[in-house]
Here is the input.
Amino acid sequence: MPRAQNPFGSALDSERTAALRAALARDPDLLLIEDDHAGLVSGAPCFSLVSPESNRWAVIRSTSKVLHPDLRLALLAGDETTIARVEGRQGLGPRWVSHIIQALVAELISDPSFGATAAHAREVYAGRRRALIEALAHEGVQAHGRSGVNVWVPVREEALVVRALLEAGWLVTAGERFRIQTPPGVRITVATLGEDEAREIARVLARAEHAGRPRRSY
Here is the structure.
């Protein structure tokens, strides 16, 4: 995921892209799958790992984040062999994507106002990420979310924080499903989160996180 990485919200920059391209250049036949699922609304520039030296690659861009969650259509570009293999597998399974969804997506992205609408959504999501991160920082809790619609909050005990937020009426995702060796954390989706709601979530989370130990400032 070059940007809007789930759940951390990280995004590639030019330095990291160059380092990864150098690593991939050692094995040009390695299949590179780039899932740019948030695309235009991710809130970060696009840095692709695909280079002229890449022999096997696929770049995927979904419309479900950019247009609507129910428009589950993805656009795929790749080398000839990879595209042929995807088409072969699709022929054995779903066979085709709804023509109605395809026509609707084509009409929406060709609308003259599409660019401005996507830019507005990008700014709104960035503002909501920033509002939650700042509210958490005010309560002495560090969080991450450079791009996308999620904020990752490192915590001592996931279950304790998830339960406290649920009792206050907020549903967040425990980080266990996303990590192997990474310390505990929770993922908070900010797509529809207002500033007042961000402050409330931050207060509840901080109470659970700071319970039984002195408050720290970051």
